[in-house]
Design brief:
The complex is a heterodimer.
Chain A lengths: L1 H27 L6 H18 L4 H24 L7 H23 L16 E5 L2 E4 H23 L1 H11 L1 H6 L4 H26 L7 H5 L2 H7 L4 H21 L2 H18 L15
Antiparallel strand pairs in A: 1-2
Helix pairs in contact in A: 1-5, 1-8, 1-10, 1-11, 2-3, 2-4, 2-8, 3-8, 5-6, 5-8, 6-8, 10-11, 10-12, 11-12
Chain B lengths: L14 H5 L5 H20 L2 H26 L7 H19 L3 H20 L7 H27 L4 E2 L4 E2 L2 E2 L3 H23 L2 H11 L1 H6 L4 H27 L1 E2 L6 H14 L4 H24 L10 H19 L3 H15 L10
Helix pairs in contact in B: 2-7, 3-7, 3-10, 3-11, 3-12, 4-5, 4-6, 4-10, 5-10, 8-10, 11-12, 11-13, 11-14, 12-13, 12-14
Classes of the chains: A mainly alpha, B mainly alpha.
Chain lengths: 290, 356
């Protein structure tokens, strides 16, 4: 029972990460391998605000999210927009390069030291007794609630809100969308901003729950596994992908060896790519197959 | 011989001149001069810089392998550091368990690399572009974690110390010895790559790069040639990895981190994808740059006191340069080189009649 809970929490965390990948992929057809570093940057912005306000959690979260969104939009205009029209591979390589720039930047500003912002949590960090032998901490409840809200909220946003419809239009046919008077660059920048803010959400949760340091970027990188398993262009696929990956990781670390757990998402991903490359809910046409 | 008498020409009038490797007096002169300079170089350099030159040689071999896959065949591979690790660990394991001599372990690493390449290449028959890149990245993580487990089990996590390499009873001890071993090896690997590119293999790979479906309709078995490219590339990578293990003298899984992966990507991107001269230029650039930066931090007063942050600075500068090349000059240093060359070739005229 407690194992199931651990898997659920981990899956919720992966869903938060995977959503960032999917948002960017839907908008610009790029796998953003800098996502982990954007996550670290968002978490550090949050941490900085937390320290400066003396532990004011809502303000710090707001600073982290808004700061990350701005970084995301700047990334689009600074790096991705000049690369429009290049092969997809170039864009992916550019995100790798961007990732190491961000990584060295965060290490430069905040040093490589590991921090524990969780100490600012106070009562939220304390475990809550659900039933006998089963407890959950406040921050874990937060992860699950936010992930669920995002899983429900984003599809509604994309279906109903004007900006969501425009996003879908740009993703489907950018040229046609531009002809209809939609500013595709603004829309893509919004997608990048939203995805980076999602990365910051995941980063903040990880920092509060576990630790914060420049070395946690690989946690964010692992998030592309659930996104690909679920289907890169599908938001609902992420939930299932995240559950599969989280289950594999938690079970591997519990029953085989903790070191194996780090490779588990990627092992699952390799198998999934071999069996069903377009993902569980992804559309087949998206994949350039031979 | 006047070195500037006959510049290399792109206009060929017969097949023989088209197949010539050193096609003009200019190229012949500089090839011989370059070789002479390379031969006396270790006598002029300090031990430290000879070591850097040796790292460049190994990086050139590794980069040529990556370029074969990414530049020539157009299959993105993000697992390169994993394959280098596989080569290095093969020789380390052979030395630890069987005390194998260097020749045996180099050959074994190369053969294992060829087999590993087929395994890693198999998804390439089904996947393209982004998805292939991701599958190689996933393979990288799986390989590195697997090797880490092996290292933990055998050497209790400490890593493997390699014995000094020796051929025919002669020990390759100093960096200077290594230089004279690695120089001919690198030249042979360069020649193999040049010959691959101008043979039927190279043409088939380039055809697959441009569009695999049309390559198939021309009678090229795309599946076979893709696997061949993966196999040849990974074999060469593992060979470089084994050389790296012997040259470094110590094999530990921490060396094959994400940073090494990025370094090799940087070499082929900064050098220019698909270009052999680009691999050489890129390898020199990427290997020497960190040392220039750390030298600069000591020499320039404004940068002093960076101390422990030099490593971050090096990585950051790498990333920025990679980004700049991707955005501003996708053809890399090789593209700049070609532009300078054409400028002098065409002088005093400015424009070429065709784009090459």
């Amino acid at each position: 029972m407690s194992l199931l809970l651990v898997i659920l929490i981990q899956a919720a965390f992966y869903a938060l990460l995977g959503m960032g990948y999917v948002l960017i992929y839907r908008a610009t057809r790029i796998l953003n391998l800098a996502h982990g570093d954007l996550m670290v940057l968002g978490a550090f912005l949050f941490f900085q605000a937390l320290v400066m306000t003396g532990g004011n959690l809502p303000v710090a979260v707001a600073v982290g999210l808004v700061g990350s969104a701005i970084v995301g939009a700047l990334t689009y205009f600074g790096v991705m927009r000049p690369l429009a029209g290049y092969p997809v591979a170039v864009g992916v390589l550019a995100t790798i390069a961007l990732g190491i720039v961000l990584r060295s930047l965060t290490t430069f500003i905040w040093t490589g030291q590991t921090r524990y912002p969780g100490e600012f949590l106070g009562q939220l960090g304390k475990p809550i007794q659900l039933m006998a032998g089963l407890s959950i901490s406040g921050i874990d409840v937060g992860i699950i609630v936010v992930a669920a809200m995002a899983m429900i909220g984003f599809p509604i946003l994309l279906q109903r809100a004007a900006i969501g419809v425009e996003m879908r239009g740009v993703a489907e046919n950018a040229l046609l969308a531009a002809q209809r008077g939609i500013n595709i660059h603004t829309i893509n920048a919004v997608s990048w901003a939203a995805a980076t803010a999602m990365a910051a959400v995941a980063g903040i949760f990880f920092a509060l729950k576990v630790r914060l340091g420049p070395d946690i970027w690989y946690v964010g990188l692992a998030g592309f596994a659930p996104a690909l398993i679920g289907g890169m262009d599908s938001l609902k696929g992420i939930a299932l992908g995240a559950l599969i990956v989280a289950a594999a990781e938690v079970l591997a670390s519990r029953f085989i060896a903790p070191q194996i757990a780090m490779a588990a998402p990627f092992l699952i991903l390799l198998v999934a790519l071999w069996i069903r490359p377009w993902g569980i809910f992804g559309s087949k046409e998206e994949l350039e197959r031979i | 011989m006047n070195p500037f008498a006959a510049l290399p020409s792109t206009l060929r009038t017969n097949y023989r001149s088209d197949m010539q490797l050193l096609d003009s007096g200019f190229v012949r002169f500089w090839a011989i001069a370059g070789l002479c300079i390379a031969l006396v170089l270790p006598l002029l350099l300090t031990n430290f810089w000879t070591g850097i030159a040796n790292q460049v040689f190994i990086a050139v071999i590794g980069a040529l392998a990556l370029n074969l896959l990414m530049g020539t065949t157009g299959q993105i591979s993000l697992g390169h550091a994993g394959f280098i690790a596989a080569g290095a660990f093969t020789s380390a394991a052979l030395v630890t368990h069987f005390e194998a001599p260097i020749v045996v372990s180099l050959i074994a690493a190369t053969i294992l690399g060829a087999i590993l390449g087929v395994l890693v290449g198999l998804p390439a028959l089904r996947l393209k572009g982004l998805y292939l890149a991701v599958s190689t990245l996933a393979a990288y993580f799986v390989i590195v974690v697997g090797l880490g487990q092996y290292q933990a089990a055998i050497s209790y996590g400490a890593g493997f110390t390699m014995p000094p390499a020796g051929i025919f009873g002669y020990t390759i001890g100093s960096e200077r010895n290594w230089f004279y071993v690695l120089l001919p090896i690198t030249l042979v690997v360069l020649l193999i790559n040049v010959n691959w590119l101008r043979s039927a293999y190279g043409r088939a790979w380039m055809a697959i790069h441009h569009r695999d479906i049309s390559a198939e309709s021309l009678g090229i078995n795309a599946a076979v040639y893709k696997l061949l490219a993966f196999s040849a590339s990974t074999a060469l990578t593992c060979f470089a990895g084994a050389l790296w293990a012997y040259h470094t003298g110590f094999v530990s899984v921490e060396a094959f981190d994400f940073h090494m992966l990025i370094q090799y990507l940087a070499i082929v991107i900064i050098g220019g994808l698909g270009s052999i001269i680009g691999c050489v230029l890129g390898a020199i650039f990427v290997v020497v740059l960190p040392h220039v930066i750390s030298y600069a931090t000591e020499a320039i007063p404004a940068l002093q006191g960076m101390g422990s942050k030099v490593f971050e600075l090096q990585i950051g500068v790498f990333g920025v340069i990679m980004l700049l090349f991707l955005i501003l000059e996708p053809r890399g240093l090789a593209g700049i080189w070609a532009r300078v060359r054409f400028y002098f070739q065409l002088w005093p005229f400015k424009y070429r009649a065709w784009e090459s």
